């Protein structure tokens, strides 16, 4: 039998494997399936990023304040605040439309990307005021963008859509992160193909703003997972737990309180042992 890469016709290969499956034992057939599955994964399936354990890829409080202070563009400052204070995903915030806001109720309606359902959140008063001010200052641009609040900034975004391009937002975000010396590399990705270079994994990311929003909200509700899950618009609370579990503050505090007294006792005991 010829190797697949050296000219074996697929129909011949299919015929061969069909005949083989009818003649070999169950054990041999399982081995054959394993070989084909592994070959498929190796060639076509990208490996997932390594599990980061307790590494928090979101923002700390100080990092967020430092980040926001260094945004000098009014539109991007407002956009990133919607992510940091209401936990909007990147695609959701880019497509934010004037019709999504009930100005009487101060309520935001969101077509959630992941759950494919419509949710609503109240807009914090200060964020609401900033939104109204921004819309009044840029009414002409928003109207030209068919009512999208975060209108396309320029032709370099390479899109025919009237709202801002997500990749463009990510590039602006990365530039600000680097300018404020907040960029950190916490791991290196594994690539499925030998000809792909491993790439460094950075924190924080634009998704780190949503990370911050969810963990901050969870803290403010004393860890109420049901409320936090509704705020995050997760269909399953276990998904919300993945965000909250990355919050190291409580973990580190409890490690200190659990072992500080014990270490002190051991130090005292060691004095007597040495004597």
Write the layout of secondary structure elements.
Layout: H1 10-23, H2 26-44, H3 61-69, H4 74-86, H5 90-94, E1 101-102, E2 107-111, E3 118-122, H6 125-137, H7 139-144, H8 166-179, E4 184-188, E5 200-203, H9 206-220, H10 225-232, H11 237-244, H12 248-274
Antiparallel strand pairs: 1-2, 2-3, 4-5
What is this entry, summarized?
Helices cover 55% and strands 8% of the residues.
Low-confidence stretches: 1-6
Structural class: mainly alpha
What is the percentage of strand-forming residues?
5-15%
**N/C terminus separation:** 79 Å
Secondary-structure element pattern, one letter each = HHHHHEEEHHHEEHHHH
Main sheet makeup: 3 strands, antiparallel
CATH topology of the largest domain: hpI Integrase, Chain A
CATH level 1 name of the largest domain: Mainly Alpha
Number of helices: 12
Number of domains: 3
Radius of gyration: 26 Å
CATH architecture classification name of the largest domain: Orthogonal Bundle
Could you give me the name of the CATH homologous superfamily of the largest domain?
Intergrase catalytic core
Number of extended strands: 5
Shape assignment:
extended
Mean pLDDT: 81
């Amino acid at each position: 039998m010829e190797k697949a890469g050296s000219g074996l016709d697929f129909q011949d290969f299919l015929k061969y494997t069909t005949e083989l499956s009818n003649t070999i034992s169950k054990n041999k057939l399982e081995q054959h399936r394993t070989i084909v599955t592994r070959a498929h994964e190796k060639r076509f399936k990208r490996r997932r990023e390594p599990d980061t354990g307790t590494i928090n890829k979101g923002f700390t409080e100080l990092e967020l304040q430092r980040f926001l202070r260094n945004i000098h563009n009014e539109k991007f400052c407002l956009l990133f605040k919607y992510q940091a204070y209401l936990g909007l995903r990147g695609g959701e915030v880019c497509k934010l439309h004037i019709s999504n806001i009930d100005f009487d109720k101060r309520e935001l309606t969101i077509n959630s990307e992941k759950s494919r359902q419509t949710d609503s959140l109240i807009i914090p008063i200060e964020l609401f005021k900033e939104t109204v001010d921004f819309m009044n200052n840029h009414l002409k641009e928003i109207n030209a963008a068919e009512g999208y609040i975060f209108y396309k900034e320029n032709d370099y975004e390479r899109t025919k859509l009237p709202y801002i391009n997500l990749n463009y937002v990510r590039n602006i975000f990365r530039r600000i992160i680097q300018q404020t010396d907040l960029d950190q590399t916490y791991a290196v990705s594994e690539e499925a193909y030998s000809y792909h270079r491993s790439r460094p994994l950075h924190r924080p990311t634009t998704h780190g703003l949503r990370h911050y929003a969810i963990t901050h909200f969870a803290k403010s509700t004393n860890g109420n997972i049901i409320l936090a899950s509704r705020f995050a618009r997760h269909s399953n609370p276990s998904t919300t737990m993945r965000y909250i579990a990355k919050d190291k503050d409580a973990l580190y505090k409890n490690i200190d309180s659990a072992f500080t007294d014990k270490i002190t006792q051991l130090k005292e005991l060691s004095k007597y042992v040495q004597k």
